[in-house]
Amino acid sequence: MTAPAVRTVCGDVPPAGLGVTDAHDHLFLRSASLPGQELDDPAAALAELRAFAGEGGGAVAQWTPWGLGRGRAALPALSRRSGVHVIAATGVHQRAHYAAPERDRMPRDAEALAALFTRELTRGPVRAGMIKVAGSFHGLDAHAERSLTAAALAHRATGAPIGVHLEGGTAALDILDLLCGTHGVPPHRVLLGHLGRAPDLRTHLRAAECGAYLAYDGPSRANHATDWHLFDCLTTLAEAGHTDRLLLGGDTTTARARSADAGGEGPGPPFLLTRIRPRLERELGPDATRAILTANPARAFAAEWATG
């Protein structure tokens, strides 16, 4: 059995070497749902990584999946120049994010999607280190069921962690039922993104009790309940004994939302360390802060990688 490792764009690294981690963000992104707001500037991506590193950041997980301009070929050089580990994603998002050419090229069944994911996790000079898929609003449509099934098949072939976009923060338990109940994915291999957009603490507690990781991401999003519920959520989960299930991410999806260092208006990934980390230390203490920013992502993104 191989030792657990985090698969970065520059190769596999020991989990302990990951460092302080932004567990959900984007350096590159192109979406049909965000016309004219592409993240496609390598110089800005490098500035963002350097600003994050300057605050003590060690790793960024980019959840941009197949077909959405993820800049995969540029990531290794950006990682080396900034000194920040970068975890890339395979997978697919909701169909609404894809323009016609990408929709037409997308494999049509779960087995073919799983084969695509597995190839990108196990072959080529720049390998993905996670699978990113998405639910739908308050449930699972046919595309979500197909892509989640494909993620489960690819996980079974490789051991890769699965990050899930929760639309509006909803359908977390439906997704765990499908991935873990139907397809047998271990819950600790599932990272649920955007839970803070629907701060239903009963659902959050049930997801944590199942063993999934809970990613609170997208600070200061004006159109979502994020910052103003964040510490209520984190405190409730910590007091219930689930500090080891918590992750934080920036989820920067537009150029305007990059940090000032990267040419945007913010807050960008450094905000996690300049503004959120001090509050974590005050309200939950240094041990919980280290767990959420360092120890938890090291476990969440590590896998005993199979060859596929």
TrEMBL record:
CC cofactor: a divalent metal cation
Keywords: Hydrolase, Metal-binding
Binding site for Zn(2+) 1: 24, 26, 132, 251
SUPFAM superfamilies: Metallo-dependent hydrolases
Example of a GO MF term: zinc ion binding
Gene3D superfamilies, per database record: Metal-dependent hydrolases
InterPro entries: Metal_Hydrolase, Phosphotriesterase
Entry's cofactor comment: Binds 2 divalent metal cations per subunit.
N6-carboxylysine: modified positions: 132
Record-listed Zn(2+) 2 binding positions: 132, 165, 194
Pfam families: PTE
Stretches assigned to coiled coil: none
Family: Belongs to the metallo-dependent hydrolases superfamily. Phosphotriesterase family.
Protein name stated in the entry: Phosphotriesterase
